[in-house]
Amino acid sequence: MKPAFLSLGIESTAHTFGASIVSSDGKILSDVKDVYKPATGSGIHPREASRHHTTVAHAVIRDALEKGNIKSSEIEIISYSAGPGLGPCLRVGATVARTIALHLKRPLVPVNHAIGHIELGCLTTGSLDPVTLLVSGGHTMITAYNARKWRAFGETLDITAGQLLDQLGRHVGYSSPAGAVIERLAKESSRYLKLPYSVKGNDVSLSGILTASKRLLDQGEGIRDVCFSVQETAFAMLTEVTERAIAFLEKTEVLLTGGVAANSRLTDMLRSMCEERGVIFRVIPRNYAGDCGAQIAWSGALAFSSGVQVPVESSWVKQSWRFDGVEVPWRIVN
Amino acid sequence: MENRKLIKRGAEADLYSTEWFGRPAISKVRIKKKYRRKEIDNWIRAHRTLREARLMSKARSNWVSTPIIFFVDPLRGEIIMEEILGRRLKEVMEDISITELKRTFSGIGSMIGRLHKDGIIHGDLTTSNMILFNGMVYLIDFGLSIQSQRLEDMGMDLRLLKGVLSSAHSPVFKQAYKFLIGGYRTSTGSNATEHVLQVVEQIERRGRYARVD
C-alpha cells in the first residue's frame, strides 16, 4: 500500500466557500468554511456569492492549513469542486485551486460535488455499500453503487427538498438556507393540512407542495402548521422512495447525507423505516452535512488514487454535471 | 385466512401465501408506516389498494397478463389475488440468453404499449414488478397506476423502466431497451412511439444537471 498523502479540498459550488485537508487514509485534519448570507428574504445571488468567495478564499485556506498544522509544501494534491453548481461560484474555487496547484507544482483533481457528499458520508459513518439519500439545496436523489458508478435509483422531478424549504422560507421573509427555521417552526405545531403527496415510481415531485403551501399561507393558515405539514408530507415521500430503493436493491444500509440531513424530523422518519425493515441507518454528522471542503478533499484523494487528475491548462468547471455519469473506480464493492 | 404464510416483504406491502376457495392465492397487505402521519398513511393505503385492484382488472380485460383479483378491502389495504408462479424478472436478468432477452422485452414493450393505448399508466415499471412464467411476463403492483391519455405520463412510465434498466441492469441495458421499444412499437405504431420517445428524451433533459452537451 502506498503511504498516505494529503489532499487540499476546495468547495465553492453555491453559498459555501470551504477548504479542508484530508489524508488519503481518511483522516480529516481540518475543515474550514465561510458561508455567504443572502439579504433577508432572498436566495443566493450567484454574483454576490462569488464575490463573497473571492473575499474569503485566502483566509479560509490559511485557516485550514493552520488548523491542520500543515505547511503548504506538505500538500500532495489540490482537489476542487468542478460541478454541479453556480457558474460564478465554481469559477472562483477553480481559479483558486489552479493557482495553488501551479504555485506548489501539485496535481489538480476535479471532483463532482454530489459524489463528494456521498463519499464523505461513507467515510464519516463507516458505511460501506449504502442506499444513499442525498438531500440538499442542489440535490434530492436516491443512489447506490453498482458497476463502477453511483447510480440514480430515484430523484426529484422538479425542485430539491432544500429548495422547497428555502423557497417556503423566502415566501415568509427568511433568507436561505431556511431549513433550520422551518424545522423549529414545525416543532411548534401538530395540525396537519393536506398537501399533495406525489410519488411517481421511484421519483418524487416536490413543486406541488411548494405551490400548495404558499397558497395555504396566503389564505391565512399559520406558518407553523404549514411548516409542519410540509415536513410531514415531503419527508414521508422521501422516506417512501428510499424504502422502495432498499427493497428493490436488497441492500442493508441506508445513508443520509447533504444539508437537509441536519433535519431531525427527516432522520426520525428514516430511522423508523430502517428499524421496521431491519436495516442499518446512518446519518452524516451535522457538521459535515452541508457543503464543506472535506467532501471535496476526501473524494479528490479517492479519485487521485485511481489516477484521476487534470492538467491546469485543460481544467474545467461544469454547472451541469450529473454524478451518475462519473466513474468511481475506487469503489471495490460488488 | 387460516393458513397465511408471509412470503415477502416488499417496500410497502407484505405478501402472504394463502388460499381462495381452494385456489392458491396471494394476499397483499399494505402495511401501516409508522414514519408517516396517520391521515396521510390511511389515505395512501386505501387509495392505492383501490387503484391497484381497479386498474389491474382493467388491464387484464385488455389482454395484459396480470393476476386475477379475488377480493379487495381498501380499509385494511388488502388485496387477495391469483398466485403467479415463476420468478421476478429482476432475479433472472443476468441469466437469460439474448434470445430470451429479446422475446421477454419485446413482450413487455408490446404489453406496455397496449396498456398505454387503453389509457392505463402503470406508474411503477420496475423489473421486480414483472414475473416471468413459462416465457410469459405478468405485470403486478398497480398501486401507483393512473388512467391517463397524456403523452407526458406515458413518457414517465417508459423513462422509469429505462432508468431501472440502466442503473440496476447496466450490462444488458442497451439491448433490453431496444427490444422494449421494438415491442412497444408493434402495439402502438411507429408514430405514437416516436412521440412518446421524444417525451422520454425531454424528461431526461429536464433532470437536474442533465444538460445534454
SSE blueprint and pairings:
The complex is a heterodimer of chains A (334) and B (213).
Chain A: E1 6-11, E2 16-23, E3 28-35, H1 46-68, E4 77-83, H2 87-104, E5 108-112, H3 113-125, E6 131-135, E7 140-146, E8 149-155, H4 161-171, H5 179-187, E9 199-200, E10 203-204, H6 207-218, H7 223-249, E11 253-257, H8 264-277, E12 280-283, H9 286-289, H10 293-305
Parallel strand pairs in A: 1-4, 4-5, 6-11, 11-12
Antiparallel strand pairs in A: 1-2, 2-3, 6-7, 7-8, 9-10
Chain B: E1 5-9, E2 13-20, E3 23-30, H1 38-61, E4 69-73, E5 78-82, E6 87-88, H2 89-92, H3 98-117, E7 120-121, E8 130-133, E9 136-139, E10 146-147, H4 151-168, H5 173-188, H6 190-206
Helix pairs in contact in B: 3-5, 4-5, 4-6, 5-6
End-to-end gap of chain A: 21 Å
The biggest sheet of chain B, with number of strands, parallel, antiparallel or mixed sense and barrel status, is:
5 strands, antiparallel
**How many E strands of chain B?**
10
Largest sheet of chain A: 5 strands, mixed
Write down the domain tally of chain B: 2
Give me the secondary-structure category of chain A. Answer: alpha/beta
**What ranges of chain A have pLDDT less than 50 throughout 5 or more consecutive residues?**
none
Greatest interface: A-B, 46 and 36 residues
Can you give the helix content of chain A as a percent range?
40-55%
Which bin fits the share of residues in helices of chain B?
40-55%
**pLDDT < 50 runs, ≥5 residues of chain B:** none
User: How much strand content do the residues of chain A show?
Assistant: 15-25%
In what order do the strands lie side by side in the largest sheet of chain B? 1-2-3-5-4
| pLDDT averaged over residues of chain A | 96
Query: Oligomeric state of the chains?
Result: heterodimer
**Order of secondary-structure elements of chain B:** EEEHEEEHHEEEEHHH
Task: Fill in the keyword field for this structure.
heterodimer; A: 334 residues; alpha/beta; 5-stranded mixed β-sheet; 43% helix; globular; B: 213 residues; alpha+beta; Phosphorylase Kinase, domain 1; Transferase(Phosphotransferase), domain 1; 5-stranded antiparallel β-sheet; 3-stranded antiparallel β-sheet; 6 helices; 10 strands; 21% strand
